[in-house]
């Protein structure tokens, strides 16, 4: 019995030693087979316990099982340790090159129209104009009537209108998709008192044949300033400052008479062509001038309509198409490009 006990002790010592020495999972498996496998000495001892004298059996049985358990536990611990250590092969090939440049995530960007609208509004905001928005579905009253364009007025021809079906909209007054941002002039004047300085960016709609310079949905930016003593010189100075911020310091501007029922006098404004400096080129169609907006002094009828005394208050208003401004600024020749969603186009406006 003493000899068997000694043998088990030796077995345990050499097994644990060999397990600890094993350098990789294959060597560890070899040790397992050698000490716990079918042909292992320990297995034989356990199997032959019945052959031992009855008084030796429990002592040896207990000891042999303890040895077996100790070996199993040591194997499990060693396996975990070996698995957490990368092999030489992995260490040799799996290098991190910290000098490699990183991969850029793909980032989105603002649409060129959004960029130009923000740029224009920022310029006016810095001059003290508030930026506000208004409804795209509008009453006839604000889009036309209150802007000095009565129902039978031929000037309505200037704006081909999408009308809202009054039955399906369940309204008893005519409703439309706004054809310009000018109705916001009325809404703002109705709700506040002078002094007023606002710009209004927003979408407008016209029943239009779509071509390289017209779309049925487009943006406008309206401007309105009303106070005592506002003159055409204020309109001119404000638009001068704006144009020079957006198109460069030497820009000249030119006003020509134009007709809009809600302003008097009414003008259209051009800038000298920044491409050819007025000499004449393809961009300005050889004229030297680029038309960028309509403007004028708020008509007394419009002021009176919102309850302002036209003898006391005067104001100026202007309206521009940011798509046209962007087309001129970036040399874009077809307005439809803005909504084609072609990345080759959009990516040019980082
Ligand atoms: N609302 C006019 C248009 O769409 C532009 C404009 C605005 C003209 C303000 C004068 C003053 O054509």
TrEMBL record:
CDD domains referenced in this protein's UniProt entry, alphabetically: PheRS_alpha_core
- Positions of Mg(2+) binding: 264
Gene Ontology biological process terms, A to Z: phenylalanyl-tRNA aminoacylation
From the UniProt record, list the reaction(s) this protein catalyses.
tRNA(Phe) + L-phenylalanine + ATP = L-phenylalanyl-tRNA(Phe) + AMP + diphosphate + H(+)
Per UniProt, the keywords (alphabetical) are: Aminoacyl-tRNA synthetase, ATP-binding, Cytoplasm, Ligase, Magnesium, Metal-binding, Nucleotide-binding, Protein biosynthesis
Q: What PROSITE patterns does the entry give?
A: AA_TRNA_LIGASE_II (PS50862)
Tell whether Manganese is among the UniProt keywords. no
Q: Which GO terms describe its cellular component?
A: cytoplasm
Subunit structure of this chain's protein: Tetramer of two alpha and two beta subunits.
Q: Name the family the entry cites.
A: Belongs to the class-II aminoacyl-tRNA synthetase family. Phe-tRNA synthetase alpha subunit type 1 subfamily.
Q: Quote the PANTHER family the UniProt record gives.
A: PHENYLALANINE--TRNA LIGASE, MITOCHONDRIAL, PHENYLALANYL-TRNA SYNTHETASE
Instruction: Return the protein name.
Output: Phenylalanine--tRNA ligase alpha subunit
């Amino acid at each position: 019995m003493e000899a068997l006990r000694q043998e088990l002790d030796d077995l345990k010592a050499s097994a644990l030693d060999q397990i600890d020495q094993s350098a990789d999972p294959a060597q560890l498996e070899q040790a397992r087979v050698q000490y716990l496998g079918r042909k292992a000495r320990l297995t034989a001892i356990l199997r032959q316990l019945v052959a031992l004298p009855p008084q030796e059996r429990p002592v040896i049985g207990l000891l042999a099982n303890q040895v077996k358990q100790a070996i199993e536990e040591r194997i499990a611990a060693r396996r975990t340790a070996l698995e957490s250590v990368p092999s030489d092969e992995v260490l040799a090939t799996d290098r991190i090159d910290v000098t490699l440049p990183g991969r850029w995530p793909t980032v989105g960007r603002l649409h060129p129209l959004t960029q130009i609208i923000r740029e224009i509004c920022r310029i006016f905001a810095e001059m003290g104009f508030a930026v506000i928005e208004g409804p795209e579905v509008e009453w006839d009253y604000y889009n036309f009537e209150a802007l000095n364009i009565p129902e039978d007025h031929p000037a309505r021809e200037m704006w081909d209108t999408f009308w809202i079906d009054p039955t399906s909209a369940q309204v008893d007054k005519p409703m439309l998709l706004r054809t310009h941002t000018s109705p916001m002039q009325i809404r703002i004047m109705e709700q506040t008192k002078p002094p007023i300085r606002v710009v209004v960016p927003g979408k407008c709609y016209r029943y239009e044949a779509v071509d390289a310079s017209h779309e049925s949905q487009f943006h406008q930016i309206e401007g309105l300033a009303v106070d005592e003593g506002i003159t055409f010189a204020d309109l001119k100075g404000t638009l001068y400052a704006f144009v020079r911020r957006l198109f460069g310091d030497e820009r000249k501007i030119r006003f020509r008479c134009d007709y809009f029922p809600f302003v008097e006098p009414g003008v259209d404004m051009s800038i000298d062509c920044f491409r050819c400096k007025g000499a004449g080129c393809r961009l300005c169609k050889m004229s030297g001038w680029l038309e960028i907006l309509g403007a004028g002094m708020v008509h007394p009828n419009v002021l009176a309509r919102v309850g302002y005394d036209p003898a006391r208050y005067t104001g100026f208003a202007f309206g521009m198409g940011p798509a046209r401004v962007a087309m001129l600024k970036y040399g874009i020749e077809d307005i439809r490009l803005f909504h084609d969603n072609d990345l080759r186009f959009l990516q040019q406006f980082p």
